[in-house]
Amino acid sequence: MRQDCRDAGLRPPSIKALRARVSARSLRERAAARDGAEAAGNRFRQVHGGLRTERPLQIVQIDHTKVDIMLVDDITRACIGRPWLTLVLDVHTRLVAGLYLSLDPPSAAGTGLAVAHAILPKTKWLADRGVTLAWPVHGIPELIHVTTDESSTRGRSPAAASSTGFGSRIARRPRRGSAATSSGSWGH
């Protein structure tokens, strides 16, 4: 830039002046200049719509993620692997209603244990772990959104795969990143 200014017969701006000009631009403008307009649009686009609820536990969503930690054996320090975290998220309150942590990949059994954790009071569970905080979220959800996954319904009839047996209904949603992913249920 210095050479371009000199070639044009102009005095090059100071570093302080350059920083001030860059800082005066919005994050979106800076992202567009650095990564392109499409990338900036994807990053800063507002998500409209999404799920609307009137009360807690009207709709919960199940989310599975591989935790970004590596577990090791206490004695040998051998790598055991990365665990999977299954969360039951209440759409209305945006609170975690239940969870399940396992080295096994997501499955119907792990999802069921996470939902059971969401349904039950957590006072004893917290006390067993020495946690003195309150976690007042519990109860039977009306509708459970799960990610579409053939392994979670294998061997079950469509009717059994769409209800829980305790009054909740199950709705399937496409896997995140697929073309049919619903827009903005959690703003992702």
Note down, in words, how this protein is organized.
- Helices cover 31% and strands 20% of the residues.
- The protein is of the alpha/beta class and 188 residues long.
- It folds into two domains: 2-44, no CATH class; 59-173, no CATH class.
- The strands form two sheets. The protein has a five-stranded mixed sheet. Strands 2-3 form a two-stranded antiparallel ribbon.
- The two termini are 38 Å apart.
- Residues 150-162 and 178-188 have low confidence and may be disordered.
Would you summarize the structure shown here?
By secondary structure, the protein is α/β, with parallel strands linked by helices.
Structure keywords:
two-stranded antiparallel ribbon, 20% strand, 5-stranded mixed beta sheet, alpha/beta, 2 domains, 188 residues
Strand content: 15-25%
Rg from alpha-carbon coordinates: 24 Å
Count of helices?
8
* Global geometry: elongated
Distance between the termini: 38 Å
Taken in chain order, the helices and strands follow as: HHHHEEEEEHHEHHE
Strands, total number: 7
Mean pLDDT: 83
Topology:
Blueprint: H1 2-7, H2 15-24, H3 27-35, H4 37-44, E1 59-66, E2 71-72, E3 79-81, E4 84-90, E5 96-102, H5 108-119, H6 123-128, E6 143-147, H7 150-153, H8 158-161, E7 169-173
Parallel strand pairs: 1-6, 6-7
Antiparallel strand pairs: 1-4, 2-3, 4-5
